[in-house]
Every structure is written in C-alpha cells, then in structure tokens.
Design a protein that fits this description.
291 residues, alpha/beta, Rossmann fold, 35% helix, 15% strand, globular, Asp_carbamoyltransf_Asp/Orn-bd, Aspartate carbamoyltransferase, Asp/Orn_carbamoylTrfase, transferase
Length: 291
C-alpha cells in the first residue's frame, strides 16, 4: 500500500507516469475506473480549491466521496485525531484525504489505517499535490524542456508548505527554485538561493510563483497594512514588462497584494490553468493509489 505524504513518496519515473495519466484526464470529462470506491475527505483547516479539486477528481473517476464536517464531529467532544482516523478506517474507505495544521500529522497516521492517506497539506511542512500540479503546469508550458529553468518563489516562503514542497520537487527535474522574500519571511533552508527583491533575479528566471502572505502563521505583526507589503512584493505589469515569463500562484490570490488585477488577466498568468491541472493531477494520483 502506497501513501502520498510528501513528493518523495513517488520516484521520478512514477511522477512521469502520473503526468501521462494527468494529460489523458485533462481531456476527459469522466471515467469509471474508481467506480465503487469510497474516498473520505477530512479537512481540519479551511480549504476551497484543494478540497473541491480532490472531490471533483474523485467523482470524475466514478468514486463516491464522504466529506466529513470536522466542526461537528466527535473531535469537538474530545476524541483524538488518531481515534477519529482509526474509526473512519474501520468503516473501510479506499482512501483518506486529510489536511491539518500540525506538521507531520499525516505521516504519523499511516500506522492507524489500512488504506492510502493523501496529504492535502500539513502545517507549513508539505503540500505534495500542489507541488505536482505546479510541476505539471511548468512542464506542459515548456514542452518538458525544463532543464536549467529557474523559478522565483515570491513571498512568505518561511511558512509556506507550497514553497517547501516545490523546492524539494522541482530540482529533481532540473529546475532551480529561488526564494524571494523580506528577511522576516525568509526560509531557514540554506540549500535554497534566497534574495530580497524580485528585481534581483527577474532577468534570469523563467517562472514567477507568487504566494499568499500567511499572517495567521506568524506570532508577530510585520506590516501596518498589507498594502505596505504589496509595495515591494505585489506582481505587476511594471515588474513583468514584456518578459517571456509565466506567472503561477497556488491560491487563494489576495488581489493587488500578491498579484495585481492587470497581471491576473495577462496571458502569461497560468493561475486558472493550475486549477484545471490540479483536478487532472489529483485524478491521476487517486487512480495510482487506489485502483
């Protein structure tokens, strides 16, 4: 039985095969390859894109989905997360998709289940399917010619599980991540090149990925307003000019803070393409782990 806790759970060859399926699913409306299977989604953090993407992916494959309301579950009565998952497992689902604020929690649940666990995000640790769909989007745009490409990941990289997962996955395919952040949002990962402003690397990168500033994950206030942050880190047409770049964002986008309105409408923005690709990639992941 295989799980997806981090992107390292899949070999490079497995990821390439996964993307072959994703290409096929991107053009299909539905499939019945998981007909009769049951998938439980268990989100302890708010989510719109990831949760709906997983659920749509499952239903497009013919699976049934049970989405648990964590707020009204036995967790509110004092039940531990381990007992919650063990009880769900006793009902014999074919997979459990889980998001939780605690780093490392999905990994610790593996011994409590008899079905695959898919990590939909754990704290600032990992978000493997987001990293996979980001890579899929980049590979697709560059027709798989990505050796030596560079991606500027801009914003709150310190608490971003997306930055964490992308920075581990992209180099496996010859892509260099560069973190762009103010000092208080810089990563402690010394293996990643880091700069303060996008202008320092804009002429050498091929992709710019903007991130949401996750103020809820910081213990102190760094800005009097988000507009103050946006002065240096909002992605604008003025920054991009006519450069041959693509723009990504894992969502949700804080308009005119992360990316301005004009750039979101620019053809170089692949933000909505990421959303579409996310369904196809998650369909491929579910098929791989369940079928």
């Amino acid at each position: 039985m295989q799980h997806l806790i981090t992107t390292s759970d899949f070999t490079k060859d497995e990821i390439i095969e996964l993307f072959d399926d994703a290409k096929m699913f991107r053009d299909l409306q539905s499939s019945d390859c998981l007909k009769g299977k049951l998938i439980v989604t268990l989100f302890f953090e708010n989510s719109t894109r990831t949760r709906s993407s997983f659920e749509i992916a499952a239903k497009r494959l013919g699976a049934e989905v049970v989405s648990l309301d964590v707020g009204s579950s036995s967790r509110s009565k004092g039940e531990t997360i381990f007992d919650t998952v063990a009880n769900i497992n006793a009902m014999k689902p074919d997979a459990i998709v889980i998001r939780h604020s605690e780093c490392g929690l999905p990994e610790s649940l593996k011994e409590h289940v008899n079905c695959p666990i898919l990590n939909a995000g754990d704290g600032y640790n990992a978000h493997p399917t987001q990293a996979l769909l980001d890579l899929f989007t980049i590979l697709d745009h560059f027709n798989n010619n990505v050796e030596g490409k560079k991606v500027a990941i801009v914003g709150d990289v310190k608490t971003s599980r997306v930055a964490s997962s992308d920075s581990k996955l992209l180099p496996r395919f010859g892509i260099e991540p560069i973190f762009v952040a103010p000092d208080h949002f810089k990563s402690e990962d010394e293996s990643i090149r880091q700069v303060t402003l996008l202008s320092e690397v804009i002429d050498e990168v091929d992709v710019v990925m903007s991130l949401r500033t996750q103020l809820e994950r910081h213990s102190q206030v760094y800005y009097t307003s988000m507009q103050e942050y946006a002065k240096d880190y909002c992605i604008t047409k003025e920054i991009f000019k006519d450069r041959d770049l693509i723009l990504l964002h894992p969502g949700p986008v804080n308009r005119n803070i992360d990316i301005d309105d004009e750039m979101l409408l620019d053809p170089r923005s692949k933000v909505l393409q990421q959303v579409s690709n996310g369904v196809a990639v998650r369909m491929a992941v579910l098929k791989k782990l369940i079928k």
